[in-house]
Design goal:
The chain has 141 residues and is α/β, with parallel strands linked by helices. It is 25% helix and 28% strand. The strands form four sheets. It has a four-stranded mixed β-sheet. A two-stranded parallel ribbon has the order 1-2. Helix 2 packs across helix 4. It starts with a strand and ends with a strand.
Length: 141
């Protein structure tokens, strides 16, 4: 298990099969911000494995990460577990177009099998989209 998070100092317990690095996931590399791409993380650790699981909770950066992800790398992923942020911003045309680009790319290779509403997003937990109340966060598999 390879874990990356630039927002915490470490994790309480490491199992011998776990590797943790204080570095976040992004669509670009920025050593000053401790951010890097999925591709670079895989290269750094020599991960050439096919059919790996990708679990992501990166506070809204998931859209940029998936837009920048090469289709070839996406074929190596077997399953995706992702927390999707910003659902309430679907009323914004630019965000909606990005949302559809990203999920069209994902849907070209994956089938959605689980949706779970996450109703915790600070004090303003829900959004209104065309008079419908929706959670701002979704957990997708």
């Amino acid at each position: 298990v390879y874990m990356f998070d630039h927002t915490i100092e470490g994790i309480n317990q490491l199992h011998p099969n776990m590797i943790w690095k204080k570095e976040g996931l992004a669509s670009y590399q920025n050593k000053d911000e401790r951010l890097d791409t999925i591709e670079n993380h895989l290269l750094e650790y020599g991960i050439e494995k096919e059919n790996f699981l990708l679990k992501m909770d990166i506070e809204g950066a998931e859209f940029d990460v998936f837009e920048s992800l090469s289709p070839k790398l996406l074929t190596r992923v077997d399953q995706i577990f992702i927390e999707v942020h910003g659902i309430g911003r679907l009323t914004n045309l630019d965000f909606r177009e990005k949302f559809f680009r990203v999920f069209s790319k994902i849907n070209s290779q994956f089938t959605l099998c689980h949706v779970h509403a996450n109703n915790f997003d600070g004090s303003d937990e829900f959004a209104f989209i065309e008079s419908m109340v929706v959670p701002k966060l979704l957990e997708l598999t």
